[in-house]
Backbone:
């Protein structure tokens, strides 16, 4: 695929910018366990070191546990990603989480009972989670394998939210000048994007501005099963996302779905957010033997009852709960309509 490397780096830049705006922080290279290589940031693993397309730390850490970090592998292919890619991601996660520095001196000191005070390298341990982002989506076997091994999948395919960004990345195929391609690749893969050149703004100013504008609007919602939602504050004049059932019940948010089933609206007090149902949940809904309304109620209770929201002006995520009153009313109305 022409310019596939450039498009992949552009996707990395977009994912990195999106995470930064949602409160995730860049992980600085320490020169040993995480270092800068020709391909970008590298992480030491048990068997080998690995390139990290995107490496960040979350806005908050879990108390009484190892600090966590997130690696996002970004793939820009023409077809949906097959199971082989996510197997590689699983191997990557295992290798970097099982890494440790053990030298002959350390082992001999343990045998003799001597301390290892001479250790001069950082020994802070981290727990790495590895996610997989794709511009073209995922095959069903990939989704199933990832769910089994708790590997987050981030799909930008067939999304109204990311349509313009997706098209701009695809249009990078049109670039022919090798020097211009090299300049943009270097810019896109720099972890903090410190590298600037006047030529960059001539080549990609529109793309950079669109990425920044979208990243400021999008919030990341994390479900209890690990699935990710991208939520955008709803425009009041969007005719496809207007609901006449928007009521503040005072005990949580409400959820509403459009005729296409993929488009959803989350209403919380005086704000509403548009999001698109992940493919995995869409498939569960479609496979349900129940009618659409009853299936939607089950979906809300099982998977969408609590959302951890990252983004906005706060440095800390917001934990939101689904309104019990809203759900009770929905069940009651369904039973009345089915009599």
Residues:
């Amino acid at each position: 695929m022409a310019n596939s490397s450039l498009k992949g780096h552009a996707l990395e830049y977009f994912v990195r910018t999106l995470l930064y705006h949602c409160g995730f922080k860049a992980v600085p290279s320490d020169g040993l366990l995480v270092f800068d290589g020709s391909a970008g940031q590298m992480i030491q693993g048990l068997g080998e070191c690995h390139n990290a397309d995107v490496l960040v730390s979350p806005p908050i850490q879990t108390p009484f546990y190892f600090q966590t970090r997130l690696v996002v592998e970004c793939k820009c292919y023409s077809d949906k990603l097959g199971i082989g890619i996510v197997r590689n991601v699983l191997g990557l996660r295992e290798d970097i989480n099982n890494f440790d520095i053990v030298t002959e001196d350390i082992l001999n000191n343990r045998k003799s009972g001597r301390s290892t005070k001479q250790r001069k390298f950082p020994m802070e341990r981290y727990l790495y989670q590895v996610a997989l982002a794709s511009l073209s989506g995922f095959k069903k076997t990939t989704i199933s394998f990832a769910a089994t091994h708790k590997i987050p999948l981030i799909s930008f395919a067939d999304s109204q939210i990311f349509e313009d960004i997706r098209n701009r990345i695809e249009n990078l195929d049109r670039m022919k000048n090798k020097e211009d391609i090299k300049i943009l690749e270097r810019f896109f893969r720099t972890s903090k994007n410190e590298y600037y050149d006047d030529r960059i703004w001539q080549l990609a100013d529109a793309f950079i501005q669109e990425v920044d504008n979208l990243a400021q609007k999008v919030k990341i919602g994390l479900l209890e099963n690990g699935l990710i939602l991208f939520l955008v504050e709803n425009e009041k004049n969007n005719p496809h996302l207007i609901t006449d059932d928007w009521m503040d019940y005072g005990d949580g948010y409400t959820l509403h779905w459009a005729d296409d089933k993929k488009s959803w609206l989350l209403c919380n007090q005086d704000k509403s957010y548009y999001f698109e149902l992940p493919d995995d949940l869409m498939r569960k809904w479609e496979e349900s033997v129940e009618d659409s309304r009853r299936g939607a109620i089950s979906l809300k209770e099982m998977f969408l009852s609590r959302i951890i929201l990252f983004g906005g002006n706060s440095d800390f995520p917001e934990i939101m709960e689904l309104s019990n009153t809203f759900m009770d009313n929905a069940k009651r109305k369904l039973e009345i309509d089915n009599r």
Summary: Residues 198-217 form the longest helix (20 residues). The chain is about 35% helix and 20% strand. The CA atoms of residues 201 and 208 lie 8 Å apart. The chain has a mean pLDDT of 86.
